[in-house]
Amino acid sequence: MLPENLTAVVARNESWTGESATEPYEAGWAREAIVFVRALKEPTGPLPKARIEISADGMHWCAEGSEFALPATKDAVSFQRVTHFGNFLRVAASLPAGGEITVLVTLHLKA
Amino acid sequence: MTEIDALRRAIREADPQLSRFDPLPRIISLDDFDRGMCGWTQLVGNYEDTLDAMLPGYAQHSHAMLSTLPNWDFGSHGGIDGSYALKIATRAKKGAQNVAIKRLTFRKPGPIRLEAYFTFKPEATDLQLSETDIRSFGFLYDLQIGDRSGPGDRVMPHLRFLNAQDGAHVQKWQFKRRTTPIKPIGQAGKTITHYHLAPDDWEDLPGGEQRLCYNEIPTKVNWHYLRFDFDLGAMQATRFQVNDRVFAMDGFDCIRIPAMKNLWCMLNLAFFAETDTDKRAFAYLDSVCLSGEF
After folding, report:
1. Under 8 Å between Cβ of A66 and A3
2. Quick one: pLDDT at residue B76?
3. Would the N or C end of chain B have less CB density within 10 A of its end CB?
4. Whether A13 and B52 lie within 8 Å, measured CB to CB
5. Which of A1, A22, A25, A26 best probes binding to B when mutated, by most B CB atoms within 10 angstroms?
6. pLDDT tens, A28-77?
7. CA nearest to A12, candidates A34, A40, A32, A31
8. Is the dihedral angle over the CA atoms B122, B127, B130, B131 positive or is it negative?
9. Number of structural domains, chain A?
10. Fold of B3-292
11. Do residue A9 and residue B63 have CB atoms under 8 angstroms apart?
12. B283 CB within 8 Å of a chain A CB
């Protein structure tokens, strides 16, 4: 059987302001992930970098260390490769006052 | 029982994968989430031109996961006979729902049987039993007659275990006959929407009170057996069983709405979870067997 390979849309048309993150996603079966973020609308204000976060239980989170730019214009896409992330995975960003982005966040996971 | 029935049963009972199910003669799908997602995906709402057109009930949905049921206090729980189960997780907001769906069509309007091993638990954010944090766990079919079979309906049998409501530990099975008003989407006249999982219009299944095995702390779970028999010819439920209880279905009925122009022979099945507090609800499926008589 071919190894599992999953495209999971974990945030769709969600408007991020302030402290924002995708819902916890369990992917302990996957050896690698690519996170894609697409801006569905024109972002406003200053955009910080997004970060990958990992967790033992889906409740307590640590920055994994990977950071990547959020897409700066409508329909722009950015991505981050991640490996060795344990089980729970999420994308988080801390948007400053006035910053807003409407995102489509997709995880591409492979066993 | 004919000789072929007896032979089929003997073969199935000797197969550990099938022995814990009682399928009808043809197995349409046997989904063991140790083999991956098995065609279970996210229920996305309808839209045209913009995702903003999607009803909020659907916009909240996200993708199910392959889970080992990991817990902060004792680690991975695992499934019945493997490491993984399908996990349906709501957001951490009272009333939030999430759905996993499998989309098929049928080739004969006859009896079908849905069997599953399931459990549910809230996210263990508190060191409390938390038995009233999950509002419900449930399942549904979304069905429509064949294009030459009419006149007929789109038929959506729904059943949910109302575990708790506003802190009361209710524990009863309910069904639904009504959905929200049908609303056109976009300008092309091709798509409509309605939210059949709206919190209103659930009715008690007569005799549907049931106490399940919840266990004694917020992390331990036990698997439960579920079986739902439905006749696609009569578009009626014929039997419903959870563990040792078989429920009379005389008082049960489905959501019935006019047939839609793009859904002929549709056979969709879905499971859902709903939280009653600002805490994520998790529903888990160890395995699902869909079978039919054809």
Report:
1. no
2. 97
3. N
4. yes
5. A26
6. 999 999 999 999 999 999 999 999 999 999 999 999 999 999 999 999 99
7. A40
8. positive
9. 1
10. Jelly Rolls (2.60.120)
11. yes
12. no
- Has the ipTM of the complex gone over 0.95? yes
B59 contacts on A by Cβ (under 8 Å): 12-13
Give domain limits for chain B. Answer: 3-292
- The overall average pLDDT reported for chain B is 95
Which residues of A lie closer than 8 Å to B, measured between beta carbons? Answer: 1, 4, 6, 8-13, 23-29, 40, 56-60, 87-88
Q: Are B252 and B238 spatial neighbours (Cβ–Cβ below 8 Å)? A: no
CATH code of the domain in which A42 resides: 2.60.120.260
The confidence score (pLDDT) of residue A1 equals: 79
Q: What is the pLDDT of residue A52?
A: 98
Q: Which of B60, B63, B84 has the highest number of chain A CBs within 10 A, making it the mutation to test binding with A?
A: B63
Weakly modelled stretches of chain B, pLDDT under 50: none
B-interface mutation test, from A12, A19, A61, most B Cβ less than 10 A away: A12
Please compute the mean of the pLDDT values over residues A77-105 and round it to a whole number: 97
**pLDDT of amino acid B11:** 94
- CB B140 within 8 Å of CB B159: yes
Segments forming the whole domain that contains residue A55: 5-110
